[in-house]
Amino acid sequence: MKTFQIEKTYNAPISLVWQAITDRTMMKEWYFDFDEAFKPEPGAVFEWTAGDTKDKQWLHRGKMLEIIPGEKLVHTWEYPGYSGSSTLSWNLSKLDDATTKVTLVHEFTIPFDSTVQELKKENFEMGWNHIINISLTEYLDKIQK
After folding, report:
1. What long-range pairs does 41-48 form, CB within 8 A, spacing at least 24?
2. % of the chain with per-residue pLDDT over 70
3. Which of the ends of the chain has fewer CB neighbours closer than 10 A, N or C?
4. Residue 74 and residue 65 in contact, taking contact as beta carbons nearer than 8 Å
5. Per DSSP, what are the bridge partners of residue 7?
6. Structural domains of the chain, count
7. Does residue 1 surpass a pLDDT of 70?
8. Residue 93 belongs to what domain range?
9. What is the pLDDT at residue 53?
């Protein structure tokens, strides 16, 4: 698998979904706690740590590649000190005023070291399924109440 793709339809307007995937304060509540360098601007380089709190916290680094406000956010996804690189694309489509489809594509441009258990592709699949289907869904539902 070179690319992982997942689609989800949310009962939320596209402007709110866009804000949820680009506003650091909102993202911290359902996704990751990005550093202050996270800006939806091409060329911005940012970092975050994530992992099992009982075990290792992984340093991640990303660089914004493409931004189409309200439609598309593309950035790299790497682990400094480990081989491999990938690109993450968030694609938003307005289905109607209150419904948005998100297509997330994680493309493994240079495979991560498969001898490192945490960097295996099935871990990404499991993580993205939880983030897209549970975390973001629950967050959007909560902030619209």
Report:
1. 41/67, 42/66, 42/67
2. 97
3. C
4. yes
5. 103
6. 1
7. no
8. 3-143
9. 58
